[in-house]
């Protein structure tokens, strides 16, 4: 099997959720059935949304590329980044190494496109991710309608991400319920958790299949790409 390298720490709790789910979703009967994984938890990485909003992205780009090279030199055969906003700079990571970099945005959009009952997709993400249009473009390229929260509800999403999950809290159910109601009132057939702090929220609170977690899609793709068996696969 191939060795997976993870550029993590953005945030640290999201990275540990990814590693836990790599273990949980792998069909394994012994240690050797699991992936070999290299994790670089680069928690001191500058805030990606702040960099995008200020226009000063050089440091983030340089550090992400350097992290990719470190993991490659350490033996990684495949790279993944459990941070949606960082995918604004994924080309810098891809150009830094000679190994595949799993694109969480493209994988998640393709996953949703395979669901025939979903046509209009709500995007729950950081201000930075929304500003780049990463998910809107990926979804629209696949014939789906993308829907982003209005200013009021985007502030609630950012509160959940920054003031709650990144601050070590579990996430407020009432805040999430307000966003949930807004998406459904505006005709969304489903929604994507396009921030890994929202993946942490999902890990803390049970969410139904209306929500597609981009990081869960990333985890499943990493398992199969690296040569392990995904739990539940019949092949």
Compile the SSE list and pairings.
Blueprint: E1 4-8, H1 12-24, E2 37-41, H2 48-54, H3 58-74, E3 78-80, H4 90-96, H5 104-113, E4 120-124, H6 127-132, H7 134-141, E5 145-147, H8 151-165, H9 173-185, E6 190-193, H10 196-204, E7 211-213, H11 214-225
Parallel strand pairs: 1-2, 1-3, 4-5, 4-6, 6-7
Helix pairs in contact: 1-10, 1-11, 3-4, 5-7, 5-11, 8-9, 8-10
Description:
- The chain contains eleven helices and seven strands.
- With 235 residues, it is an alpha/beta fold.
- The strands form two sheets. A four-stranded parallel sheet has the order 5-4-6-7. Strands 2-1-3 form a three-stranded parallel sheet, with helices on both faces.
- Helix 1 (12-24) links the parallel strand 1 and strand 2.
- Helix 1 (12-24) packs across helix 10, helix 5 (104-113) packs parallel to helix 7 (134-141) and helix 5 packs across helix 11 (214-225).
- It starts with a strand and ends in a 10-residue tail after the last helix.
- The mean pLDDT is 96.
């Amino acid at each position: 099997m191939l060795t997976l390298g993870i550029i993590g720490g953005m945030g640290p709790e999201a990275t540990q959720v990814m590693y836990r789910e790599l273990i949980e979703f792998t069909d394994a009967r012994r240690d050797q059935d699991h992936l070999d994984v290299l994790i670089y938890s680069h928690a001191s990485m500058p805030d990606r949304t702040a960099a995008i909003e200020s226009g000063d992205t050089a440091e983030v780009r340089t550090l992400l590329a350097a992290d990719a090279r470190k993991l490659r030199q350490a033996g990684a055969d495949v790279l993944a980044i459990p941070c949606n906003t960082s995918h604004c700079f994924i080309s810098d990571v891809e150009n830094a190494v000679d190994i595949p970099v799993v694109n969480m945005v493209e994988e998640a959009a393709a996953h949703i496109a395979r669901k025939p009952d979903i046509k209009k997709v709500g995007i729950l993400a950081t201000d930075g991710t929304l500003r780049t249009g990463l998910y809107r473009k990926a979804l629209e390229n696949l014939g789906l309608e993308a829907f982003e929260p209005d200013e009021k509800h985007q502030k609630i999403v950012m509160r959940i991400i920054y003031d709650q999950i990144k601050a070590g809290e579990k996430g407020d159910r009432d805040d999430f319920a307000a966003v949930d109601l807004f998406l459904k009132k505006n005709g969304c057939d489903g929604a994507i958790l396009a921030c890994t702090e929202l993946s942490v929220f999902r890990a803390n609170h049970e969410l139904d299949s209306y929500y597609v977690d981009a990081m869960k899609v990333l985890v499943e793709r990493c398992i199969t790409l690296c040569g392990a068996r995904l739990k539940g696969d019949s092949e």
